[in-house]
From TrEMBL:
GO molecular function: undecaprenyldiphospho-muramoylpentapeptide beta-N-acetylglucosaminyltransferase activity
Annotated transmembrane regions: 60-82, 88-108
Provenance organism: marine metagenome
Name of the molecule in the record: Glycosyl transferase family 28 C-terminal domain-containing protein
GO biological process, one term: regulation of cell shape
Residue span, Glycosyltransferase family 28 N-terminal domain: 1-135
Swiss-Prot/TrEMBL keywords: Cell cycle, Cell division, Cell membrane, Cell shape, Cell wall biogenesis/degradation, Glycosyltransferase, Membrane, Peptidoglycan synthesis, Transferase, Transmembrane, Transmembrane helix
Amino acid sequence: MAGGTGGHIFPALAIAKELSSRGMDIVWLGSKGGMEEKIVPKHGYPIHCIHSSGLRGKSLFAFIKGVCLLAIGFIQTISLFLKNKPNIVIGMGGYASGVGGIVAKIFFTRLVIHEQNAIPGTTNRLLSRIANKSFQAFDNSFDSKVKAVTVGNPILFQPKTKNYPKSVNNLLVLGGSLGAKKINELIPLIKTPLNIWHQTGDSHIEATKLAYQDSLHLNVHIESFIENMAEAYVWADLVICRAGAMTISELIATKSIAILIPFPYAVDDHQTQNAKKLSDAGAGLLLDESDLDANEVDNILQKMTPVKLELMTNILGKLQTENAEKVIADYLLIPSRSNSN
């Protein structure tokens, strides 16, 4: 059960891939109109999308509409459970995950959740009270009463071996699965000549191409979405990106140094907390969007000496954990009698 953003969908796909390789049948629960409707079928998994909605921060009318949609989604999910009779359910976040988690408990189906961010989302925070097992990407995301197990985030691609960069020549720019307008506008203004691989998001690609026309950069490759992330990370000497949970985990897994620019309007400012997991350890650089300036980025680039690059790469290596998707799959495949706590 996962949907809404790439941060929920892609780690769920990594778990689904691992489970499929072990002979498990996968049925996906998502939300109508969500990214998952297009992404999940491309990976070969059947998906059922229900009506769902968030309720937090809504106007009275939107709240009432949301309650009605959730009620419809609740009935749809019951029908799905009766039809498919799942042995175990894993929720990764998103509105549909909340509905599915409640229905799982009604049907006495084992419920497992995984939280990708440093601060749990509303759905996982609520489901952690009824889940049989809770996993978290970062230590202390959940309250200690939850007794969550820290495993990192499942990653869909296999990271490639990468040595520490001697200098910054290749810059990878990521704005998350939907892009980041502020970052897209900033990078073409940097005066340090670089080779750039830039993911813009679908809605920003044309404007970004125009912005690069008069830039000083050596070679620029612009895509709305990068399919081969393993290749992109191994190519990059430095990454400039948002601080979504999956991005943080991919940076650690690939030992990629980054300037992290958290999305300032993220719920509970969770991207800042994600970024601090790296910056506080000396494995990344945190830059608030309010301080976003081409001169500041140029200054940071000038300070990236070979010694600093090697040190940060080594710290990233120490932060690496065992493959989360394998750990979670191991737990999911334990017989139910042993899997009750």
